[in-house]
Amino acid sequence: MAGGGDSLRALLRAANALLRQRRYHAALAVIKGFRNGAVYGAKIRAPHALVMTFLFKSGSFREKLKSIAQATYAHSRNLAYFVFTYKGLLAAQSRLQGKKIPFHSFLAACIGGWLVFGDNNPINSQIIMYLLSRILFGLSRLAVEKGYIPQPRQDPFPLLAALVWGTVLWLFEYHRETLQPSLQASMTYLYEDSEVWHDLSDFLVYNKRTDSK
Q1: What CA–CA distances, in Å, run from 14 to 9, 31, 44, 156?
Q2: Each residue of 40-66: b (16+ CB within 10 Å) or e?
């Protein structure tokens, strides 16, 4: 038993020594990026899938658990693949040109986005829309910072909030099919299901009555 413990400690020391080698840093960063992408994707998707599935999806308990597991796996896998691809291409470009330039990041991410997130499915669609909203905010702030557009005299956020909510409710009421299914489900729960009730049970306790009264 002692010999096995010594072998394990020697293996751990060798692994730690390898991880401290600067010449392997780029390759090891790609591997850890894959790990972090997988973990982060699972942490983000699992709670979201859990809530959305049990709130809005029908089916047996087993089917709901399967749906949650599939969504979590897809999100985790895609983020892991993307980070691995992005960091790998970034390291390759830097090695080929001898230095890192801003365009390397853009090109590597474009290729990774095409390869990993190019399939138009619900998981990828949610991720892309999440990023798009952040990009628009970021580009707006960058444009002000660089002087391309003047600094607003008043906070534009109230106007933005009004336009966003006005547009999304107009789309929901008159062009619902253009909205993502999960958003349709959320809005149906909020704005349509609140129009229907039969007694106190489905007015305050439940959203919808399940019996045949």
Answers
A1: 9, 18, 34, 56
A2: ebbebbbeebbebbeeeeeeeeeebee
Closest C-alpha to 127, from 71, 169, 176:
71
* Lowest mean pLDDT across 82-86, 157-161, 187-191: 187-191
Q: Outline where the chain has alpha helix (H).
A: 2-19, 25-56, 61-97, 102-117, 122-146, 157-174, 181-187, 200
Above 90 in pLDDT, residue 103? yes
CA gap 118, 33 in Å, rounded: 20
Sign of CA dihedral 196, 201, 204, 208: negative
In the predicted model, is pLDDT for residue 136 greater than 90? yes
Long-range contacts (CB closer than 8 Å, 24 or more residues apart) made by 55-59: 55/185, 55/189, 56/182, 56/185, 56/186, 56/189
Parse the chain into domains and list their residue ranges. Answer: 14-117, 119-151, 154-199
Give the three-class secondary structure for 116. Answer: helix
Q: pLDDT value at position 83?
A: 96
Work out the pLDDT band at 211, boundaries 50, 70, 90.
low
Asked which of 48-62, 79-93, 137-151, 156-170 is least confident by mean pLDDT, the reply is: 48-62
Is the pTM here over 0.85, yes or no?
A: no
Closest by alpha carbon to 112, among 76, 134, 81? 81
